[in-house]
Specification:
Layout lengths: L4 H13 L9 E6 L6 E2 L4 E5 L5 E5 L2 E2 L8 E6 L5 E5 L6 E3 L6 E9 L5 E2 L5 E12 L15 E4 L1
InterPro entries: DUF4402
Protein name: DUF4402 domain-containing protein
Pfam families: DUF4402
């Protein structure tokens, strides 16, 4: 009786694939929220927080040094030495709401960025995220809040 080689190959593939070690899920946990600190809108402009936490202003926005803001920090945990990529929100997809007009966030950046991340030998790593806040002319003072999603996956 002749056997079909395609069926034998399929059975072999099922056998080998069922014995591969499972990859640990890549987990992300929020450590600290993104904050742009205190500012005066003036004639409008922008405030940028880098992943390293450096804050700069553009246009006529005035930064108040006593509340400097900071980058968002996340902790990652997964397979030791595994590489991963970071997917950040697109420009304008995140809005902050408060007492005045909504504020848009643009230019999200991270460290590590893109596909350049690698977990350490313990399977952990810290991820920092910054962005730019677009401030309208005469923006109403007050607290503005919003949320954004950071996606991390193995390469």
């Amino acid at each position: 009786m002749a056997q079909n080689p395609a069926i034998i190959l399929f059975i072999l593939l099922l056998f080998f694939s069922s014995h591969l070690p499972a990859q640990e899920a890549l987990a992300i946990g929020a450590v600290r929220s993104l904050s742009f600190g205190s500012l005066v809108a003036g004639g409008g402009g922008s405030v940028t927080i880098s992943p390293a936490g450096h804050r700069t202003a553009g246009g006529s926005v005035i930064l108040i040094p006593s509340v400097p803001g900071h980058a968002a920090d996340f902790s990652l945990q997964g397979d030791p030495d595994a590489t991963f990529y970071v997917d950040l929100p697109s420009d304008g997809s995140v809005k902050l709401v408060g007492p005045g007009a909504d504020l848009s966030l643009t230019g999200f950046t991270s460290e590590p960025a893109g596909a350049g991340g690698q977990l350490n030998s313990g399977g952990t790593l810290d991820l920092s995220v910054g962005a730019t806040l677009e401030v309208g002319s005469g923006q109403s003072p007050g607290d503005y809040e919003g949320s954004f999603t950071v996606i991390v996956n193995y390469n």
